[in-house]
Write a structure and sequence with these properties.
Largest sheet: 10 strands, antiparallel
Radius of gyration: 25 Å
Order of helices and strands: EEEEHEEEEEEEEEEEEEEEEEEE
Number of strands: 23
Structural class: mainly beta
Shape: elongated
């Protein structure tokens, strides 16, 4: 019988704690000296293949998978681990929080929420080590920041649930508890990520369309997106039409422009 040669082994590993776990491996081909698979003896009955060991994935489908096909970005966590919400005040109220913070132990796997392409990697700045993922078939881009490590490269295609990095405290998260800052952009808008996973959003609550409200401070800044560029500055007692009402922001129309005003800048006309 010919010598058995292993032709190819393509495996990916994921480090968890102090151990290395096999995540996925391609099929392995065995050949003899002549390059063909060795034949079985007629007298030897073929044996049944051994049952494949269960594949360990970075995230539990039962806990992380969502009806829309999205996977929660931190393995084995869900919205119950969110400790910082969209629209929360930051820097003493000078800016809103434009994502969510998900608490997890340092080194916890961060995974792709959807299949797509890594279109940018940051290594400096407020987000520290960060990855931008362009979602396939959508204008949405997903941002994962404060990572301890990065497991992907720019231009790499990934599938939902694939490892892209680990939770850390890089950037302006230094000195805080480990967490992932997760943000979602769609075209010219910034979405509340928690709404994608069944949580209650802080922005875009319908039911207030057509209501007139008034600014109660001079210099109220109308934003293109929550916390984004200012597109108009409104005087005190300026009427605006409320299109959507959120917990922290109202989407309004003013002088032919549509944008967002912080809720505290408006008061109901009485």
């Amino acid at each position: 019988m010919g010598r058995i040669v292993i032709r190819k082994l393509d495996a990916k590993f994921w480090r968890r704690g102090g151990s290395v776990v096999l995540l996925a491996a391609s099929a392995v081909a065995a050949t003899g000296r002549d390059g063909r698979a060795p034949a079985l003896s007629r007298s030897a009955a073929p044996t049944a293949p051994a049952a494949a060991a269960p594949l360990l994935r970075p995230s539990s489908p039962a806990k992380n998978a969502k009806p829309a096909g999205l996977v929660f970005p931190v393995a084995d966590h869900d919205i119950g681990s969110v400790v910082g919400h969209f629209g929360d005040a930051r820097d003493g109220g000078r800016r809103p929080h434009l994502g969510i913070d998900i608490a997890a132990p340092r080194g916890t796997p961060v995974v792709a929420v959807h299949g797509g392409t890594v279109d940018r990697i940051d290594r400096v700045g407020a987000g520290g080590l960060a990855v931008w993922l362009k979602e396939s078939g959508s204008s949405r881009r997903h941002y994962f920041a404060h990572l301890q490590s990065i497991a992907v490269q720019r231009g790499q295609r990934v599938t939902a649930g694939e490892l892209i990095g680990t939770v850390g405290t890089t950037g302006n998260a230094a000195g805080t508890s480990p967490h992932l800052h997760y943000m979602v952009r769609s075209a010219n808008d910034i979405l509340d990520p928690i709404s994608l996973f069944g949580g209650r959003t802080s922005v875009a609550k319908p039911g207030s369309s057509g209501r007139t409200m008034y600014t109660h401070l001079n210099g109220a800044a109308l934003k293109r997106v929550p916390g984004g560029a200012t597109i108009a500055v409104l005087p005190i007692n300026q009427p605006v039409t409320v299109l959507e009402k959120g917990a922290r922001y109202y989407r309004v129309q003013y002088n032919g422009k549509t944008g967002y005003l912080a809720r505290w800048l408006l008061e109901k006309n009485s």
